[in-house]
Amino acid sequence: MMKNNRIPKHLRTIRGGFKGHFVIKHYRGGLVVMTKFPDMSGIIASLQQRRCRNLFAKAVVYAKSVIGDPELKAAWQKRIRRRNGVYNKAIKAFMLKEKNLLQRDVFLEMQKMRLACKNAAMIKKSWRENVVEVAGQDRSTERFTYLETG
Known about the structure:
- A hairpin with a 3-residue loop joins strand 1 (16-18) and strand 2.
- The protein is elongated.
- It is mainly alpha-helical.
- It has five helices and three strands; from the N terminus they run H-E-E-E-H-H-H-H.
- Among the domains are: 4-36, no CATH class; 45-106, no CATH class.
């Protein structure tokens, strides 16, 4: 880790990584620190992290397609007030759309489960009523006839 006085002046203006070799971090109070680029080769991402990364990658592809099409970019530009915010707004819109679709799918699945449980309870109730009706009949003669013929 290097402090302000050791970092060359032309590198102090850079923010973030530099070709995967080192990272320059800026903290409050004007402190600028240069650190080694983190080694992420041994990291195993969780399922949720992979899903989020894949979603973000799709959002970036969508945003780049919006930026690449002049007509679509102009349409997006009309919707926002900032001059250069189309890329970020396109990413946000894509991710919110995916989130809403996922929430809708979860809601529909939960609704199906509720209906299935309700139907199962109704079937069980009707089955119990049929059992009670059959149990109310005199079945003693049926058993004897079965034993005589069998």
